[in-house]
Specification:
4 strands; alpha/beta; Rossmann fold; four-stranded parallel β-sheet; 8 helices; about 230 residues
């Protein structure tokens, strides 16, 4: 996969798309077996597949976002929720100047909570933004991919994310990952991920496979159509 769009201005004139796709990731720890850019890679993989299937304008990713719950782990870098909010709104306003008034935010990091508020506000009076995938989309994609774990059990660096990277960027996956399940995470916002996992992993990477990652991605592309239909109707 290409992590950055390679289209030209001429390509976009010819495409004349009404919808743009913006991947939003993060730069945070994912244990010792996955890169800091994992969430960005996941968001880019989904965005590239969606843009290709539905002929949409693909934007470069937002690579640093709200990863404060991982701040005690080396390598993690965050921006504030207010900054992420401003970046998304600025991108949308810039696109609108070129006649693209609708944006799909493809979120690869669960901690980017502010994106939900951005989309809510953008859709007052007219449908301008969609946020994808939703929790239900991830659950359905897990079932279609044959994954054993749930969204809750496999929160970070586990079966799902490792499978997607094994499919789209296998050279970025290292060995030695150990499963770690922390079923109770009531105080995550206070204690951070480090309060529940010394390795930074919450999930079961041992169950991952490239085939699962492929099937998950295929299902997400299919599920995106309903979101696009609501956005463009």
């Amino acid at each position: 996969m290409d992590f950055l769009p390679t289209t030209t201005s001429t390509d976009e004139v010819d495409r004349a798309a009404a919808v743009a796709v913006l991947p939003v990731g993060s730069f945070e720890q994912h244990g010792g077996h996955l890169p800091l850019a994992t969430d960005t890679i996941v968001a880019c993989a989904i965005s590239e597949a969606i843009a290709g299937r539905y002929d949409l304008t693909l934007l470069p990713p937002v690579t640093i976002a709200c990863s404060h719950e991982h701040s005690e782990f080396a390598g993690t870098v965050s921006i504030s929720a207010a900054t992420l909010y401003a970046v998304i709104r600025d991108v949308a306003e810039s696109l609108e100047q070129r006649g693209i008034r609708k944006v799909v935010l493809v979120n690869g990091h669960g901690g980017n909570y502010v994106l939900g508020n951005v989309v809510q506000e953008a859709n007052v009076g007219a449908r301008r933004m969609a946020l994808f995938p939703h929790r239900d989309d991830w659950e359905q994609a897990r079932k279609s991919g044959g994954l054993v774990t749930s969204n809750h059990e496999d929160m970070h660096g586990g079966e799902l994310e490792t499978s997607i990277l094994l499919h789209v960027a296998p050279g970025q996956v290292r060995g030695g990952a150990e499963d770690w399940v922390a079923a109770e995470r009531t105080h995550l916002h206070q204690l951070g991920v480090g309060g529940y996992s010394r390795s930074g992993i919450v999930g079961r990477p041992s169950l991952a496979s490239a085939d699962k990652g492929r099937l998950v991605l295929d299902e997400l592309v299919r599920l995106a159509k309903a979101h696009l239909d609501h956005l463009t109707q």
